[in-house]
Structures are given as structure tokens and as C-alpha cells.
Design goal:
The protein is mainly α and 314 residues long. It contains 17 helices and no strands. The radius of gyration is 20 Å and the shape is globular.
Length: 314
Amino acid sequence: MNAVTPASNKQYRLARHYLEKLRSAKHIYQCGDENASYGLKLAQQDWAQIQHWQSWSTVQASQDQEAASLCSAYSLEAGELLDLLLSPQEHHHWRQAALIYAQQIGDQRAELEHLLVLGQIYHILSAYIQAVASVQEALEIARQLDNQKSIARGLTILGETARFEGTYAQSQACHEQSLAIYRALQDPSGIAQNLLGIGNIMQDLVGDTAARPYIEEALHIYRQLGDMHSTATALRMLAETWMNEDIVAAWKYLDECLPLFKRLNVPADFIAVTRTRAMALVSQGELEHAQTIRNEGLQLAQQLQLPRYTVIAS
């Protein structure tokens, strides 16, 4: 263990101070609606310092229990803000370190959270084998702790991953199991997430009309929760379901989701929405404009090294 000096005491105080600022920003963000933009802005204002002290705690963590706890806590307390502030690769780096040190200090609940988020990150990066392995490890812990919400979250990620691997029956089974748990817990956000998942399956297997009720129900829930990011995602998905039937309706949903995505400024969302915009332009015969939009998304996907989004954008 390192000796604690006056200088290191000051460093720990600063690391704890910026952790608290990050925690406060996340709580404001989670209040939804306009609070989401304000919470994100607060985190962005202190982002250089937050990154510095997270990095500092990671360097110190192998030799010091408090630093190990801080390293885990930075990812734990930031929550979904990290999806907005970091690339998937950067987020993976933070979470992998957090997982190692949560295990080192024996914090099983933090370990569970980090494993679940790593599963989602691996899914985004199209590393499906690692995604499943991470979630299965998380589910073992969640079942030991009888943590029903974490079990449901794990099943949702497995459902999303199975769909991208083309195993639709398994995907639907996972989403339906997760949905049943979330309904029992009366957790509206979890319910909506799985409704979107089932909507995706319906769109792939049956068609837009079959998918639409699931997405509309999810959108209604997200609006009530004031969840700006998920509302924008559901609006984009609804736009796609109208593309072949009613281009005016499709643009109505697109015009509503675009300002929300711009306010949040998440690259992966920009890539997905450029694809939807390109689809709408193609249906109107504006092929040159559509190709320009598609190329913007493709360039960003390649720049961020996101194979799944490169396919989406192309």
C-alpha cells in the first residue's frame, strides 16, 4: 500500500469531489425532459476534470483500496451518461478497469453492474460472443443475489444480441421473459425497452404493421417518463415503419426525433438516423441527396470503428 501524504490527501479529495459532481449530473439527467439536457451539460462542463480523476484513480487502484473503490465508482455513478460522453471503445476501457477493481475490493453489486454494461458495449461493438459471456457471468451473480431487475436487464441484452445473430426465436423468448419480470416489478422503462425489442423482431419477421403497436406503446411510456434519448429512438423506429406506406407520416416522426438527437449529440444515434433519413429521401426519389446523407453516416461509422453501424449506414 502507498503511504498517504498531504499531497495524496488533496488528490483523493479532488477525486471524490469530481465523482460527486458526476453523480449529481447523472441524477439531474435521470429526471428527464429538460433536466436531461441540463444534466448532460453539467457533466460536459466538468468533463476534463472528471476524466483526469477517473484516470488517476485507475492508475492508483492496483495499490490502494480507496482508489480502487473510486475507479469502480466513476463508471457506476456516471451510468448512462457514459453512453453520451464516451465512444463505445472508451466506455469499454472505463468499465473494464471498473470491473477489475470492483472484483478486487469484493463489491459484488458493482461487479454485476459493470458486467451488464460491458455486455451492452460488446453488443454495440458487434462482439457478440463476448457480449453473451459477460451477460451470462452477470446473470450468475444476479441470481445469487436474487436481483430480479438485473436478471431482466441481462435477458434484454441477450435478446438484442440473439436478434443480430439471426436467432429470432431465442431473441423473442429472452425479451418476453424480461418483459414479464419488468411488468411484475412495475418498471416502465424496462417494459418499454423490451417492447422495442419485440417490435424490432416483428418488423424483421412479419412487417411494419405488426411492429408498429409495440413501438407506439414504448413511445407512449418514454414520453411519460420524459426520457429524451429513448423517445427519440422510438420516434426514429416509428418513422421507419411508415416509410413504405405514408412518407408524410414518416417525415413527421423524423422531424420530431432529429432535434432531440441533435441536443444529445450521440454519434451512434446520428448514424442510425442518417440511415432513416436516406430511406425517406429514396422513397421520394431524391437519390443523390440520399447518397450524400448515407455517406455522412458511413464515414462516421468507419471513423468510430463500429462494424454494426457501418452496415447500418451503408
